[in-house]
């Protein structure tokens, strides 16, 4: 499937830390990531098909992570996300 590929969180950057190391162990984003990875998105009703013209789509799992994080931070508007 042709979705937009995100950055690997374990890849080292110019500085000696990676993005995954900058989060604390008990951060809510780790919980959200584990939750979204544990569910089957296709059987939950998420559409995994894409149209092959135009810009690639975002992966439905990434969008679900973003919306859940917005609810954790009391951001209900897509503009603020």
TrEMBL record:
<protein>
    <recommendedName>
        <fullName>Transposase InsH N-terminal domain-containing protein</fullName>
    </recommendedName>
</protein>
<feature type="domain" description="Transposase InsH N-terminal">
    <location>
        <begin position="19"/>
        <end position="75"/>
    </location>
</feature>
<dbReference type="InterPro" id="IPR008490">
    <property type="entry name" value="Transposase_InsH_N"/>
</dbReference>
<dbReference type="Pfam" id="PF05598">
    <property type="entry name" value="DUF772"/>
</dbReference>
